[in-house]
């Protein structure tokens, strides 16, 4: 296994991708719960959402935390709140390993998430473009203006 280390740099933004377990398409059906999960995390941690797009089985976001070491806790809080309140009908059909079943694990999210430290303005703009074009890439919309689960609508 790779010896992975996260980089924590105050004042930087972080591009994050969080995916549901087995790419279960439950996020749009539970969009209000996901929004509430973000609100819960924002009450605990200070950060700005620079951009976000939610698709049925994953979301991409760029956040700028006041304290860089908070971003793993931010994601954990979002995932935990969502998992705690998600109706069992959305995940009961998914298989789990024996060890995770014994832990009482709810199969809602992939264990890990993708994280990238934004290095400069060009990097930021590339990630913003990727976020806003993601629903088009996956065939959910022909134009970003048509996808209502995106911060693009607030520009």
Quick structural overview:
This protein is α+β, with helices and mostly antiparallel strands and 155 residues long. It has four helices and four strands. It has a single domain (14-91, 103-138), classed as Alpha-Beta Plaits (2-Layer Sandwich).
How are the strands of the largest sheet arranged? 2-3-1-4
N-to-C SSE string, H for helix and E for strand: EHEEHHEH
What is the percentage of strand-forming residues?
15-25%
Radius of gyration in whole Å, from Cα?
16 Å
Distance between the termini: 41 Å
Write down the CATH class: Alpha Beta
Helix fraction, binned, reads 25-40%
3D shape:
globular
SS elements, strand count: 4
CATH homology superfamily? Transposase IS200-like
Helix count from the secondary structure assignment: 4
Q: Just name the CATH architecture.
A: 2-Layer Sandwich
Tell me the major beta sheet: 4 strands, antiparallel
CATH fold call: Alpha-Beta Plaits
Low-confidence stretches at least 5 residues in length (pLDDT < 50)?
Answer: none
Helix/strand-derived category reads alpha+beta
Compute the number of structural domains.
1
């Amino acid at each position: 296994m790779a010896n992975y280390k996260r980089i924590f740099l105050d004042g930087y933004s972080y591009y994050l991708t969080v995916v549901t377990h087995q790419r279960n398409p439950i996020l749009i059906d539970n969009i209000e719960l996901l929004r509430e999960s973000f609100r819960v995390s924002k009450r605990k941690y200070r950060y700005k959402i620079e951009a976000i797009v939610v698709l049925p089985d994953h979301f991409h976001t760029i956040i700028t935390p006041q304290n860089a070491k908070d971003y793993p806790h931010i994601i954990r809080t979002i995932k935990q709140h969502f998992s705690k309140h998600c109706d069992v009908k959305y995940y009961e059909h998914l298989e789990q390993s024996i060890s995770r079943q014994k832990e009482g694990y709810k199969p809602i999210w992939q264990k890990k998430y993708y994280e990238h430290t934004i290095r400069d303005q060009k990097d930021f703009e590339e990630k913003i473009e990727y976020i806003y074009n993601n629903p088009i890439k996956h065939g959910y919309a022909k134009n970003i203006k048509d996808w209502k689960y995106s911060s693009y609508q607030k520009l």
